[in-house]
Amino acid sequence: MTNSLLNVLGIVTAFMTAIALLSLIVTALVQMTQAAFGVRGKNLHFVLRHLLDVVKTDANENPRENAGEVLNAAPSSLLTRQYDFTKRFSRIIGPAVSWLEPEELAYALRESSVELDDAQQEKIKNGFDAMKRPVQKRLNRNMRFLTVAWAIGVAFVFQVSTPHLISKLSADPEARARYLVAVDDSLDQVEQALVRLESYEDVSARALADIERQFPEVEELIEEASGLGREKSYLVDELNVVLAGNDSRRAVVGAYESRLDDLVGESRDVAVDEAKKAMSSLALLGIEPWGDPQFYSGGGSIRWANLLGVLVTALLLSFGAPFWFDNLKRVAGLRDALKPVEADSGERGGSS
Question: Which domain holds residue 222?
């Protein structure tokens, strides 16, 4: 009974090892994509565009351009390049600012070139506050779409069919043993990648310390900044407030924003490096991009079983690296815990 359970857990652990490594690649690709295309900023632009479309009904008005003007006037955009939302490239990349607090929105509406009376500004602020929850849902939906898209791509390129892989691990003890040997290294790789994929808030303390050394004349003022905030715009705006009226404000805040980007960029580079290591580990397990030229078609016909199996793998990968990391740890721990039971049972059987 114990041996059978250990065999099943061995197959499950080996399978989850491969899925965890593949999901790490998916997670890295999703983070790189959302950062490169400004997914959060485009989400914010969509909300403002909708509100301006409702409030300003003039047929000559362009909500897309108006929303871009408001974002360009936002406090957290003062030190970043301006975006022209009439151009296709800007529509793809999205604005640098990713969220606005109510007071920041009020400032942006006043300072932008969009003509709004007090009643219209108030309607937009109220509508913006009411749309926070739908906006978060929309962002989550967009990130989910990115994850599913990359999961399909990774599963397809690496040609991993879930039924085929499980069958292989069940029938080939040597292959299963290779996968099980890689469990500890795989757990370390996934953990390192997840830990090092830092947010702006994670790196804010280091960024503040760096600019304190760079601008010692305002060190005491910089120390008043808490470095707390989910988005870069929160952190930058806080330092703007702390340094209000100081002649060095623009230079210090600009250096801070640049340092935040550098540190977050470094963490993403580390995550990419870990994803590359995951690819190397997968290669040792016999899983490589386009490893079998006839995986999807052979003998003049499409191998539908492999295609469907790859789609099942993509579905599993879409749960993300954190999910597989946590569950792989649990299953591997359970398997390790049962090993002494097997040894004890053998000793008792030999003595009887």
Answer: 200-267
Report the distance separating Cα 316 and Cα 15, nearest Å: 11
CA 233 to chain CA mean position, Å: 18
Which residues of the chain fall short of a pLDDT of 50?
77-81, 89, 91, 341-352
Final residue in a domain of this structure, among 93, 109, 139: 139
**Tokens matching residue 239:** 């330092």
What pLDDT, on the 0 to 100 scale, is given for residue 349? Answer: 45
pLDDT at 351: 45
What is the pLDDT, as a whole number, of residue 28?
82
Helix (H) / strand (E) element for 81: namely none
At 298 the three-state DSSP class reads: strand
Task: Tally helices (H) and strands (E) across the chain.
Answer: 16, 2
Dist CA 276 CA 272 (whole Å): 6
pTM for the full model?
0.69
Q: CB atoms < 10 A from the CB of 103, how many?
A: 11
Can you tell me whether residue 297 is helix, strand or coil? strand
Per-residue DSSP letters for 21-43? HHHHHHHHHHHHHHHHTTHHHHH
129 and 78 co-located in one domain: yes
Pairing, β 301-302 against β 297-298? antiparallel
Domain count, the chain: 3
